[in-house]
Amino acid sequence: MHVGATTSQPATTRGFRIATQAAAEGAMFAALAALIDRVGVYGSETEELADAAMAQDVITAVIAVPALAVASRRAALGSARAHLVSVGILAFLAYNYAIYCFSVTFGPLFLFWTALLGLTTVLSVIGLWRAERLHMERLVQPGLLPSIVLCTVAVLFATLWLLEIVPDLHDGTGSTSAQQWEVPTNPVHVLDLAFALPLAFLAGWGMRARRRWAVLLAPVMLSFFVVMSLPIVATPFVAALRGHAVAWGVVLPITSIAILCAIALIQCLRVPTVTTDR
After folding, report:
1. pLDDT at position 173, please?
2. 36 domain-assigned
3. N or C: which end of the chain has fewer CB within 10 A?
4. Do 264 and 149 meet the contact criterion of CB atoms below 8 Å apart?
5. In angstroms, what CA-CA distances link 98 with 41, 117, 159?
């Protein structure tokens, strides 16, 4: 028989579901509006920043929002695992809107992005709190692979970012990657080093010791990384379609990371089959 697929209480409240639906619809509107009026929204940005932002909009509209809608619906039916996935997607949206709000030139979607940043951030926090309150970590399967993947991804990207940041600080020339976007600092470096990578490492390391909070956080971070990888993979294709310089070298390694994170996520959320003797 299958055990542990659902909680004894609804995985989400009615208010949380309504707010999540509003976030999904708002994200879809913002993504489509930016893609339709890309000159008005991204016309003042560098090619590199505009390509990356448009890739995020495409993934948001085509994958993130539909996935959030499905996960939210399943969570409403009692699936705790779907709830954890939805929290990871909400965190992805919050991450994106933080970049838009602080790095994209003040424009027609500024207030909309700001509202979505606040909404998705609050929903991510409340979603984790709800998961902790209902002890959803009991429905997660701790394993070596998720632990290794989370720790490896965290260390790998922290190392890559520091290999750029430290020499730039030493030379006093400013951030190399930020100059490509013509922004003061690279927002990806800030968000990754301040939040995403430490949380991923702690979740992976804590899962080895079967810490309750780490077991709960691990599938959220894996969901986040799976969705976060997709705009990076999509950016070279967007650049190619727009006739810009293309960096194809990121496609294979980031796709590999996305696949590993997806496999680890599936392992975390698999439903164990228990055979009972009669």
Report:
1. 87
2. yes
3. C
4. yes
5. 16, 6, 23
* DSSP state at residue 12: S
Q: What is the amino acid identity at position 269?
A: L
The pLDDT score that the predictor gives to residue 6 is 54
Q: What is the DSSP letter of 270?
A: P
Range of 126's domain? Answer: 14-269
Residue 237 inside a domain? The answer is yes
Distance between CA atoms of 119 and 208, rounded to whole angstroms?
32
Encoded tokens for 46 = 């560098």
Residue 164: inside a domain, yes or no? yes
pLDDT of residue 10: 66
Local confidence band at 278 (pLDDT 50, 70, 90 cut-offs):
very low
Closest residue by Cα to residue 109 from 98, 101, 121, 99: 101
DSSP 157-221: HHHHHHHHHHHHHHHTS--HHHHHHTSSS-HHHHHIIIIIHHHHHHHHHHHHTT-HHHHHHHHHH
Q: What is the domain count for the chain?
A: 1
Spatial distance between the Cα atoms of 104 and 106, rounded to a whole number of angstroms: 6
The alpha-helical segments, DSSP class H, found in the chain are 14-36, 38-42, 47-59, 65-76, 80-103, 110-133, 144-171, 176-181, 187-191, 197-208, 212-241, 251-269
- Pick from 30, 268, 11, 231: nearest CA to 126: 11
Closest CA to 128 of 91, 159, 102: 91
